[in-house]
Design a protein that fits this description.
Blueprint (H helix, E strand, L loop, with lengths): L1 E6 L19 E2 L2 E2 H11 L4 E6 L3 H8 L8 E6 L6 H6 L9 E5 L2 E3 L1 H8 L5 E7 L7 E6 L2 E7 L8 E9 L3 H6 L11 H10 L4 E5 L4 E3 L5 H10 L9 E2 L4 E3 L2 E3 L4 E2 L4 E3 L2 E3 L4 E2 L4 E2 L3 E3 L4 E2 L4 E3 L2 E2 L4 E2 L4 E3 L2 E2 L4 E2 L4 E2 L9 E5 L2 E7 L4 E3 L4 E2 L4 E2 L3 E3 L10 E2 L7
Parallel strand pairs: 1-4, 1-6, 4-5, 8-12, 14-17, 15-18, 16-19, 17-20, 18-21, 19-22, 20-23, 21-24, 22-25, 23-26, 24-27, 25-28, 26-29, 28-33, 29-34, 30-35, 33-36, 35-37
Antiparallel strand pairs: 2-3, 6-11, 7-13, 8-11, 9-10, 31-32
Helix pairs in contact: 1-4
GO molecular function: glucosamine-1-phosphate N-acetyltransferase activity; UDP-N-acetylglucosamine diphosphorylase activity
Protein name: Bifunctional protein GlmU
Enzyme class: transferase
Amino acid sequence: MKVVILAAGEGTRMRPLTASKPKVMLPIANKPMMEHTINAAMDAGIKEFLIVTGYRENSIMEYFKDGNHLGISVEYVHQEEQLGTANAIGYAKDYVKGHFIVLNGDMLVSTEHIKHLISRTEDAIISVKEVEDPSQFGVIENKEERVTRIIEKPKNPATNLANAGIYLFDDVIFEYIDKTGKSKRGEYEITDSLQMMIDDGCSVGYEILTSDWIDIGRPWDMLDANKVLLENIDDTHEGTVEPYATLHGNVKVGKNTIVRNGAYIIGPVVIGENCDIGPNCFIRSSTAIGNDVHIGNAVEVKNSIIMDGTKIGHLSYLGDSVIGTACNFGAGTKVANLRHDNKNVKSMVKGELVDTGRRKLGVIMGDDVHTGINTSINIGTVMEPGSSTMPGEVVMYKRKTN
């Protein structure tokens, strides 16, 4: 059986992190999020993959290549224009035969669930998640083991079974994709194709997700996924840990990394290769530090993702944040991450201020951002790639300056 992974989109709600790479290549626990999806499928016994690419596809193809180094086969097909899920899946028509699985490259799904899908034999299977507020999702109606109707964001949902966007299809689906028209959103929706299958009497079932499933739609979702994935890391030290550094719990240290005396690290934490950590810094749990990162003296980092090549200067604090590649924190840079009034933090997405649903959230920082010494960054701030601050500046939202 083959897995088709949808990975053509930029992920505009993830900006500014996707300015230089597609969403599926953003790192979680120091691996591109799509690699975790591929690993879950591999552990389920799948060896053949087709990746539907588009935005900045070279970064995907250069990383995964033909899959031979992973012991799998990887093919690619280019989606000319992102026109909806049915359109994307339709590009797989000449690459699959019989049953195949469709996964999104920006979702974390368990090996267990993929095994359940493989065992099914219907014309189509929709993965669903039991949710508290189904009115915010596409919802299925069912009769016994069959799906009878799919409704997008119903006002009065008949069930709490939300479509999770993970499918098993027989290749008959392509007949219905060819007949699918544009939705009100101007896209070709796979749920419309599925409804036609149901109306024609095809066997369309569902499989309930009972294990971890995270849809990574906005930057702060990366922190939730990072926390889940770090729970399973090994306690391995391939670099140098000096005698008076203290490591509690599972801490993975990469090759040629040095953890200097006085560093205090509470796992789970992953640190990449060629990093310089400390001395006398405090790294708290659920933190992922990429390759070639420097964490200076008297720095505290908590529950954050720090991408390759970034330097956090001495006397700085960083919490509940996502930091892009090649950023530089001037000494004394502080990131606020907590609302003391117990209200949720708001942050900017596609030019609009939205409720993140989180009481704690620091900064979402694009690539190559430089802060002056003693910069203060407010909760939920988004900093555009290439932007910079003056010494002592207080930042709410920062665009690139010419």
